[in-house]
């Protein structure tokens, strides 16, 4: 990924769960600030086993995030609040891995796209996982991703 301004990259992660992706983004050392947004409330997606049992998930994430509070900013809220929390054009990269239903992915993309800088990247997880409707929503809103990865992640540069 070639970002326009390499010096002070900001990203938004929608759906942080345990922080596995957050840790990867942190360890990349590309981002000055990583905003992690999640409700840490279970039962939102009957097709996603991870959403069924949230016992200890939030506490585990917060333990990780507190150690990196200089970079990681936690937002315990719904993605529907994105238009009200963040200014437009502030993020270089947005990564979506929350509710995998078609309507939720579509909403997450539409709520977050205005927050992306021109020339920034949007991506997410579970694009090639047939159980979810991620692919349908992504293709409809931003078009076919520029790249997909073995872990079913996807990425698209927004010009």
Mean pLDDT equals 89
* Strand line-up across the major sheet: 3-2-1-4-5-7-6
Helix-strand pattern, N to C?
EHEHEHEHEHEE
Q: Estimate percent helicity.
A: 25-40%
What is the first-to-last residue Cα distance?
A: 14 Å
Biggest sheet architecture: 7 strands, mixed
Count every helix, treating DSSP H or I runs of 4 or more residues as helices.
5
In one word, what is the shape?
Answer: globular
**Can you tell me the residue ranges where pLDDT is under 50 for at least 5 consecutive residues?**
none
**Percent range for β-strand residues:** 25-35%
Structural class assignment = alpha/beta
Q: Topology, pairings included?
A:
Elements: E1 9-14, H1 20-27, E2 31-38, H2 57-66, E3 72-76, H3 82-85, E4 91-96, H4 102-112, E5 116-124, H5 134-141, E6 147-148, E7 154-157
Parallel strand pairs: 1-2, 1-4, 2-3, 4-5
Antiparallel strand pairs: 5-7, 6-7
Your description of this structure?
The protein is of the alpha/beta class and 159 residues long. The protein is built from five helices and seven strands, in the order βαβαβαβαβαββ. Strands 3-2-1-4-5-7-6 form a seven-stranded mixed sheet, sandwiched between helices. α4 links the parallel β4 and β5. α4 packs parallel to α5. The model has no long low-confidence stretch (mean pLDDT 89).
